[in-house]
Design a protein that fits this description.
Layout lengths: L9 E3 L13 H35 L9 H5 L17 E6 L5 H4 L5 E5 L8 H15 L5 E2 L6 E2 L9 E5 L6 E7 L2 E4 H19 L5 E4 L5 H18 L7 E6 L2 H4 L2 H7 L4 E6 L2 H11 L19 H16 L3 E7 L8 H21 L3 E4 L5 H12 L32 H19 L5 E3 L2 E3 L1 H16 L12 H19 L1 H6 L2 H13 L8 H7 L2
Parallel strand pairs: 2-3, 2-13, 3-6, 9-10, 10-11, 11-12, 12-13
Antiparallel strand pairs: 1-7, 4-5, 7-8, 14-15
Length: 538
């Protein structure tokens, strides 16, 4: 039986939105209040633990597998729960924000759609609430609409042709300032999870699926344990069977890479896989080892491919870990956006996407991500060639893989070095992304790539690291704060000349420029760009 819904002690501090009463019901807010009261104190403790661990890394300049959890890693008997039918075949997944045009993702032919409240969504209150409404409408097949600007109509295909929805809530570090309980902001993760779960869990079971989630920015198995406890409580609260919720954890922090088995173990009744990221993973490396010496200085981000030795160690360990424990291993993102104007550019990009997805399929991954519907057939062909009619290749145990603790942080194995063009690109991408984010866009097309908040994080972190490591670029110039300011001023002038004074004034360009320099130059390194950015979000 569902718990009674008392009047929640909540304050929604925002202007009313269309149809918000369908999302912010008393019963839904009471559920979020329960989550907040029970679990926010533990969230706060775990955030404090992150700070302590970062201090330990700064002191030791290394990481290792945890000795206190060795018994979990050495126990070959445990497995995660079998995948539900809707998550057994995940060979291609498409990502994107929860806006009204989500029908493109649901209709794309991908097996899974990652419905994103995190890095591909700027957390304006409108995006938070209307994103929830859009998901409700999608599950009730009332999402069809016509874009008033273009006249283009969007309608869902038959149910058996739609991608399975896996929702990604915000990371633990972000609060939702528009929803307070007893004067305390609710963690954004609990708002996103709570509203989606409360409104859709029963409905999804009726559709033969379930409430499925991607868990971002996880840094330890203790954070996975917190999520597991939330799932147990939530399922009891609404009266659905334990194990209905399934979660895929993004291994996008360097500390989580050392706890993959432990993370699966904590979530074993609810785990469905792990995902291998790129930009957030590199961002985490820089953040944690930013002052650990020259051997930890990364080159230009585009020079760090998934075939770099330390990245390959990470991805191969992920596949080995997942298949050893019966979980899906999901590969990284193909972020290219087809131009549909330059066939030669598309041809070269498609070949790179194919090579990347071919490699992932050969390495044992069970699926992979794309950012655009036009890339779905390319990724599908790569995995079809390896999987055939099989839904996955979890039987491929990769027992040949053996990864040492040192291999995961062997950044010095890279031959590439930071370049002046890399600095210019980091500034150019950072300003463009932050400007769009401040206007409420989280997924942004920049230089033919679909970028999200992780791109801005690695960009500003590399600027910070190069300056503080006194990097000398190939042209003889030293990475300094003054050089970063000079490049940023030049880029801002280039943008203004390109779009015109009126469009420049209508945007958030100066604010984006200032924020990028703040987080890239301040000696007090901000844990997440989105924390100071959120204070400026309209």
């Amino acid at each position: 039986m569902s718990a009674p819904a008392p009047s929640p002690p909540s304050i929604v501090d925002a202007e009313p939105l269309p149809r918000q009463d369908e999302v912010l019901t008393d019963a839904a807010l009471a559920f979020v209040a329960e989550l907040h009261g029970r679990f926010t104190p533990r969230r706060d403790e775990l955030l404090a633990r992150r700070t302590e661990r970062r201090a330990e890394i700064a002191r030791t300049r290394t990481l290792d597998f945890l000795p206190e959890t060795a018994a979990i890693r050495e126990d070959d008997t445990w497995r995660v729960a079998p995948a539900p039918a809707a998550l057994d075949d995940r060979r291609v997944e498409i990502t994107g924000p929860t806006d009204r045009k989500m029908t493109n993702a649901l209709n794309s032919g991908a097996r899974v759609w990652l419905a994103d409240f995190e890095d591909a969504s700027a957390p304006t209150w409108q995006n938070v609430v209307l994103g929830q409404l859009n998901l409700i409408d999608a599950h009730t097949r009332s999402i069809d609409f016509t874009d008033p600007r273009t006249g283009k109509s969007y309608a869902l295909r038959p149910a058996d042709e739609l991608a399975t929805v896996v929702t990604r809530p915000r990371g633990w570090h972000l609060n939702e300032r528009h929803l307070q309980l007893d004067g305390i902001p609710v963690p954004g993760a609990l708002v996103d999870f709570g509203l989606y779960f409360f409104h859709n869990a029963q409905r999804l079971i009726g559709l033969g699926k379930g409430p499925y989630f991607y868990l971002p920015k996880t840094e330890s198995h203790l954070e996975a344990r917190l999520w597991n406890d939330i799932f147990v409580f939530a399922q009891d609260y609404v009266g659905i069977p334990q194990g209905t919720v399934r979660a895929t954890v993004l291994i996008e922090t360097i500390t989580a890479a050392y706890e993959m088995e432990e993370i699966l173990y904590e979530l074993r009744d609810h785990a469905s896989g792990l995902n291998a990221g790129r930009w957030d993973y590199l961002f985490s490396l820089v953040k944690n080892f930013r002052d650990a010496g020259a051997e930890f200085v990364l080159p230009d981000r585009n020079a760090v491919t998934m075939t770099a030795p330390f990245m390959r160690a990470y991805t191969e360990l992920l596949v080995r870990t997942c298949h050893k424990r019966g979980a899906h291993a999901i590969g990284g993102m193909a972020a290219f956006i087809p131009s549909r104007r330059d066939a030669e550019v598309d041809k070269v990009a498609f070949e790179k996407v194919k090579a990347d997805k071919d490699r992932e399929a050969r390495d044992g991954f069970d699926g992979s991500w794309v950012a655009h519907p036009d890339l779905v057939p390319i990724a599908m062909a790569s995995f079809d060639a390896v999987l055939g009619e099989r839904p996955n290749q979890k039987d491929r145990l990769r027992e040949d893989v053996s990864v040492t603790a040192g291999a995961l942080i062997a950044i010095a194995t890279l031959e590439a070095k930071p370049t002046y063009e890399g600095l210019r690109n980091a500034v150019a991408v950072g300003i463009r992304y932050i400007e769009a984010w401040l206007r409420g866009q989280g997924a942004v097309a920049i230089f033919d790539l679909m970028e999200d908040a992780a791109t801005a994080e690695i960009s500003r972190s590399q600027i910070w690291q190069w300056i503080n490591a006194d990097v000398v670029f190939e042209n003889g110039e030293h990475a300094t704060a003054d050089l970063a300011r000079k490049v940023a001023a030049e880029e801002l002038a280039t943008i203004r000349a390109g779009i015109g004074d009126e469009a420049f004034a209508a945007g958030q360009w100066q604010q984006a420029h200032d924020l990028l320099l703040q987080v890239a130059l301040d000696q007090d390194y901000a844990d997440f760009l989105t924390l100071p950015a959120y204070e400026r979000l309209r």
